[in-house]
C-alpha cells in the first residue's frame, strides 16, 4: 500500500527533526566564546542549560495539545479523544528519571561524537528488557533475548571504534571519549527505569501522548530551572569545563550566548526539534505503524553519522558501520521488525501474527507516556 503525501511528510519530519535534535546539541557544544567578567574564550559546556531547553520543547507539546483540543471542540463532530483525567504527580517519578538521564547524556555528548552518542543510546533495549522482566512480569520472546545479545555486541564494537579513533582525535582526549561512552550507557539505565515507570503507572490511565510528554516537560523544566541556582554554587573542580569550575554556570552560558548569538540558534534548534519530533513520532505511529516509527528512529543514526562526517566533526571509521549494523539488527529482533518480513514468506506462517500484533503495539504507544519519544 502506497503512502499518502501526508504520511511521507510525517516520516520525513520525524527523520529530520530527530536528527536535528542531536546535531544541534552537538553544534552548541562546539562553540567557544568569552564568558562573564571578561573571562577569555572557552568552550560552551553547559549540559544542564541545554537540558532545560529540551524540557521547554517538551513543555510546548502541552500547549499544542490544548490548542488542538480547542480547535477540535469547535467542529460539529469532535474527533479528538483527550483521554481520562489523572493526577499530574503521576508523571513526577518518570520526569525525574528523564531529567537525570537527559542531563547525563548532555554531559556525555560534550565528550564524544554525535554518531557514537546516538548509537550507544541503543543500550536502552538491554536495560528495558531486563527491567520489564523483573518488575512488569513480562516474558521476553527468544528473538528479543537474541536482540539483546546483538545489542551488547554492537555496543562493544562501537566502543572499540571510539577507543581506536580516540588516539588520533584532537578535539577529545581518549579518556574523555571513554568516559562519555560510559556515561551514555549509564544514562540508558535511568531511561529504562523511566520507561518501566511510564508503562506501569501511566499507560493504564489512557493519557493523550502530547499531554503526557508536555506534563513531563513541565516538571523537568521547572525543577531543573530551580536546580540551576544551587548548581551555580557547587564547586566540582576540574570535572566542570567552565571558568568557575561549578556544576553549572548558567550566567556564563548567557554571557557566551550574548557574545556569540549563533549558540542561541543551536539551542533553539534543539528546543524546537524535540517538540516537532515528539509530534511527528506520535503521528507516524497513528497514521502508519509503530514498526515504521522504530525504523525511522534507527535511520536517524545514519543521518547524524553522515552529516557529522560531511561537516568534518568526526573521522570515518569502518568499525562504526559494523557496530551500527549489529545494533540495527539487535533493535530489529527486539522490536519484532523481522516478523513482517517473515509473514510474506510461505515457509513462515507464524509470521502472519505480525499484523495482528501491530495494532496493540500501536495502541500502547499512542496510549500515553513518551517511552518512544526520546530525543
TrEMBL record:
Coiled coil: none annotated. Residues 1-18 form the signal peptide. It is found in: Membrane; Mitochondrion. Pfam families: SLC35F. Gene3D superfamilies: 1.10.3730.20. GO terms for biological process: negative regulation of mitochondrial outer membrane permeabilization involved in apoptotic signaling pathway; positive regulation of cell population proliferation. Keywords: Membrane, Mitochondrion, Signal, Transmembrane, Transmembrane helix, Transport. It is a multi-pass membrane protein. Residues 366-375 have a biased composition (Gly residues). The keyword Mitochondrion applies. Interacts with SLC25A5. Belongs to the SLC35F solute transporter family. This is Solute carrier family 35 member F6. It comes from Carassius auratus. The lineage of its organism: Eukaryota, Metazoa, Chordata, Craniata, Vertebrata.
Amino acid at each position: 500500500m502506497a503512502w499518502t503525501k501526508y504520511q511521507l511528510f510525517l516520516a520525513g519530519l520525524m527523520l529530520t527533526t530527530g536528527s536535528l535534535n542531536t546535531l544541534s546539541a552537538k553544534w552548541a557544544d562546539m562553540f567557544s566564546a568569552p564568558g562573564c567578567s571578561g573571562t577569555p574564550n572557552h568552550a560552551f559546556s553547559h549540559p544542564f542549560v541545554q537540558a532545560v531547553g529540551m524540557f521547554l520543547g517538551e513543555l510546548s507539546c502541552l500547549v499544542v495539545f490544548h490548542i488542538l483540543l480547542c480547535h477540535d471542540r469547535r467542529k460539529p463532530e469532535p474527533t479528538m479523544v483527550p483521554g481520562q483525567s489523572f493526577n499530574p504527580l503521576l508523571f513526577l517519578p518518570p520526569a525525574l528519571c528523564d531529567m537525570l538521564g537527559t542531563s547525563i547524556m548532555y554531559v556525555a555528548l560534550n565528550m564524544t561524537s554525535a554518531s557514537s552518542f546516538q548509537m550507544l543510546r541503543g543500550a536502552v533495549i538491554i536495560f528495558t528488557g531486563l527491567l520489564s522482566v523483573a518488575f512488569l512480569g513480562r516474558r521476553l520472546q527468544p528473538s528479543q533475548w537474541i536482540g539483546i545479545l546483538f545489542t551488547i555486541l554492537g555496543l562493544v564494537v562501537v566502543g572499540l571504534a571510539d577507543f581506536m579513533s580516540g588516539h588520533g582525535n584532537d578535539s577529545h582526549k581518549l579518556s574523555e571519549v571513554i568516559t562519555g561512552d560510559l556515561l551514555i550507557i549509564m544514562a540508558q539505565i535511568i531511561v529504562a527505569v523511566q520507561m518501566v515507570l511510564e508503562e506501569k503507572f501511566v499507560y493504564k490511565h489512557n493519557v493523550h501522548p502530547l499531554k503526557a510528554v508536555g506534563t513531563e516537560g513541565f516538571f523537568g523544566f521547572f525543577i531543573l530551572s530551580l536546580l540551576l541556582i544551587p548548581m551555580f554554587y557547587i564547586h566540582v573542580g576540574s570535572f566542570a569545563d567552565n571558568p568557575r569550575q561549578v556544576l553549572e554556570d548558567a550566567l556564563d552560558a548567557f554571557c557566551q550566548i550574548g557574545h556569540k548569538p549563533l549558540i542561541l540558534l543551536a539551542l533553539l534548534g534543539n528546543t524546537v526539534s524535540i517538540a516537532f519530533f515528539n509530534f511527528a513520532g506520535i503521528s507516524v505511529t497513528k497514521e502508519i505503524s509503530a514498526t515504521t516509527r522504530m525504523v525511522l528512529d534507527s535511520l536517524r543514526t545514519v543521518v547524524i553519522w553522515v552529516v557529522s562526517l560531511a561537516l568534518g566533526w568526526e573521522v570515518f571509521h569502518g568499525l562504526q558501520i559494523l557496530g551500527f549494523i549489529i545494533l540495527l539488527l539487535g533493535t530489529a529482533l527486539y522490536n519484532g521488525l523481522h516478523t513482517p518480513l517473515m509473514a510474506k514468506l510461505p515457509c513462515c506462517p507464524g509470521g502472519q501474527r505480525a499484523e495482528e500484533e501491530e495494532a496493540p503495539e500501536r495502541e500502547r504507544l499512542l496510549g500515553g507516556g513518551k517511552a518512544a519519544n526520546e530525543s
